[in-house]
What we know:
The protein has 571 residues and is an alpha+beta fold.
Amino acid sequence: MEDSLLLKMAERMSIAATLAFLLSQTSLLQRLNYRSVTIFDKVKLAVIFGLIGIVGTYAGIPVDDALANSRVVGVMAAGLIGGPVMGAAAGLIAGGHRYFLFGGFSAFSCALANLVEGLFAGMVRKWYPHAALPWWVVLASGVVGEVLQMAIILLTARPFDMALTLVEHIALPMIVANSIGLTIFMAIIRMTMDVQQQAGAAQSQKALAIAAETLAYFRKGLDEASAQAAADIIYATGSYHAVAVTNATEVLAFVGDEAEHHRDRRHELTKATLRVLDSGEIYVARTREEIGCPCGICRLESAIVAPLKRGEQVIGSFKLYYTNSKLLNQSDVVFAKGLAQLFSIQLELAEIDRQAKLVARAELKALQAQINPHFLFNTLNTITSLIRTKPDQARELLQKLGSIFRFALQKAGHAITLEEELAQVRAYLAIEKARYEEKLCIEENIDERLGACLIPSLIIQPIVENAVVHGLKPKVEGGTIWLDVQQRGSDVVIVIRDDGAGMDLQTCHPLEQNSVAHIGMQNVHERLQGQYGGSYGLTVQSAPEEGTVVTLVLPCKTRSEEEHAQQHHCG
């Protein structure tokens, strides 16, 4: 009887092998291979493996009011692939089905055994968390799992004599057939996953080669030229029907099928692109509706949209399109994600390089303002005139002049506290106040609680200097500078206002014109936007003879918060 039962069970192993092959072809298992599964994916896998166990129940062979079955294959495969939780979940599904629908004196024992086998297989997976399970480990796990099932039947099934008879009849066939069946099941999945990993490695090599070719272009930042070069390179080296690159507002480059109407609609981003720009996460659109092209007759059926980031800021996207949705596979998703990360690193390096140049310009501007012969000559003349009449004030001005020199040499280019920056500004204004006397008035309204906020150095001083030199100096009667620093939500808002000469923003906007007179304001604006994003920076309000209001907005972060964020990012 045992020989015929073993033969029948061996025949039914073809069902498990077929299911293993079909499962290995699903995108769900491919995501598990690339370690990009979500909790919902794991739930779906647990259900699928539980259903495979149920198939094993229906394929079972009646023996002594019970079933000799291959249910354990699906249950233990779940644990060996996904760990204890997935194994236990699959065991509950398959075992629960056996308990409620088939009954019999061994129903509870079999259901309990499935739960235990799923947990046991999951523990085996924990012993090999990152490595492929050797075939002999799978085989031994199958043997141990079935031995546990027989022991549970003997311990819990009643009457005992029926349990003993059942175990005598099914133990050897089920231990042999199911352990071998489990080994075959896992081997089929393992071979398919190995092929996928090899394909993934090839995709990684391709991504690195593309990144190397695009490095020279993205070093200049994300613009039409770099986007077009990147799109051409990806399109030439891949099998995609179209490739596109966008910034946050428009299509910068589009190559391949449907390029003409996408270029014509360059200011109309697709629904999928807008979703990625908003979430900062890669998105796979598998239908035309999910792509959401503004053109109703677009032939592109599927797309992978990956975000391009500069630090934490999403500044654009690149997209890989297919005209046939069936061609899109998980290796393309992994390729797009890896390439997006490489592009983002290049763009961040380009921004770091640009920021370094801006800082160098800011330092030069500060040194020119503070150490140029005119400023130094005027300051020394002022101090000389005060030595006899007001020696204490002369001494104080010398100290402030020394403070300005030390700041320019030591602090420029570094992140400093708002309190340090304001000390620098006050030193500068004290010297100018000594020169202009009653023609220069200064009023402050500063929230002292913000003193510990970290800011880039030399962002307030150039604006104040601009107000003195270009706002108040041209007026014979002079004027007043108001400095207001307050918190708004999580941001610091710094307002520098003067009642000086003002300017006509229609003919000469300091943030748009490359004017030497306003290079300091342009520098501050570009540095803030480059470091914190487009929602930060400067705004200017002015009119001739009505003064100027310059508003700076930047995030409020202390040194401890910054260090914590960096540790979290590194972790």
